[in-house]
Amino acid sequence: CSGRLEVIHGNTWVSVCDAAFDQQDAEVVCRELDCGAPVQVLGEDAFGKGDAQMWTQEIQCRGDESYIDLCPTSPSHQDNCTSDNNVGLICSGYTDLRLVNGSDSCSGRVELQFHNEWGTVCDACWDMRAASVLCRQLNCGIAVSVVGSDWFGEGSGEIWADVFDCDGNETKLSECSISSWSRAECSHRRDVGVICHDSSLAVHDGLVRLSGERQCEGELEVSIHQVWRRVLLDSWSLTESSVVCRQLGCGSVLNFSGSSTSSPEHSHECVTGFQCSGSEAHLGNCSSPQTLNCSSTQQLSITCL
Fold first, then answer.
1. CA–CA distance from 98 to each of 3, 134, 278, 297 (Å)?
2. Is-contact 146 127, C-beta < 8 A?
3. Which bin fits 291, alpha (ψ -120 to 50), beta or left (φ > 0)?
């Protein structure tokens, strides 16, 4: 589902010039190959030059054709098409997705379809941002929690270990780039599950985020009654930290500490008093906190593994 694009012309494989190829053409190629949607169109020899001759036609697809052969073509006016201008294409590969074994269609074990085969996703490859994109694609709101196989059971068959690099604002998973194939020891014990906001399992108080440079570290903020509030260090422990790291899909907790920085927009709203047993999937399942004025010297930072 990725590589230098060649099409058959007569009985010969020919390369396509990047100047004569656009997003609509890419949609048709990925569809024809059963490879989902285009992630990226690349020029400039991304996948080598190859030895195929350059095609002199410009492809003009609308984007909804089933095969590239159905698209009209016209003579290309690009005189500078050489083997340095080959089109490279990366397709998403995944053609469908679903949540399985949950209480409703907005919670369950994550399963993706690749080449008509359904498989599960390894938890090492998945985070809260990818989960939110999946929930949005299923019309289920944002993600509340990323959970392990103890919630929705172990799947069977293939395990997909692509690492999805989403920024969290995409409308579907095929818009996220895939950075690598994970080297983690993946088994069905590590099948990832997701609880979306619109699921009956979601606790709407207790969404969490970390405000650092990286997703798995930073000052902790918790959504209480739809307002983001900082958390104070008082009465916080490793137990509560481990729940937050699990909820974010960030592994186990490395450490937590007090932080003295305070941004003005949070200066009057903080929370304290979460009590967790440590096994909860998200902070909303722990005992309720109390809201109070912030003390800027004691706001909580967490680093997850």
1. 27, 9, 29, 44
2. yes
3. beta
Could you list the pLDDT tens digit for every one of the 305 residues in the chain?
A: 888 899 988 888 988 888 778 889 999 999 888 788 888 888 766 788 878 888 878 889 998 898 999 999 888 766 667 767 788 898 877 888 999 999 899 999 999 998 778 999 998 888 888 999 999 999 999 888 888 888 899 999 999 988 888 888 888 888 887 877 777 788 999 999 999 988 888 766 678 888 877 778 998 988 877 678 888 888 899 999 999 998 888 889 999 998 765 555 555 678 888 899 998 888 888 887 787 777 655 788 999 98
Three-state SS for the chain is: CEEECEEEECCEEEECEHHHCCHHHHHHHHHHCCCCCEEEEECCCCCCCCCCEECCEEECCCCCCCCHHHCCEEECCCCCCCHHHECEEEECCEEEEEEEECCCCCEEEEEEEECCEEEEEEHHHCCHHHHHHHHHHCCCCCEEEEECHHHHCCCCCEEECEEEECCCCCCCHHHCEEEEECCCCCCHHHECEEEECCCCCCCCCCEEEECCCCCCEEEEEEEECCEEEEEECCCCCHHHHHHHHHHCCCCCEEEEEEECCCCHHHCCCEEECCECCCCCCCHHHCECCEEECCCHHHEEEEEEC
Taking the whole predicted model, whether its pTM rises above 0.70 is answered as: no
Tokens 């010297």 found at:
297
Residues sharing a CB contact under 8 Å with residue 79, sequence separation 6 or more, in sequence order: none
Give CA 187 to chain center in angstroms: 20
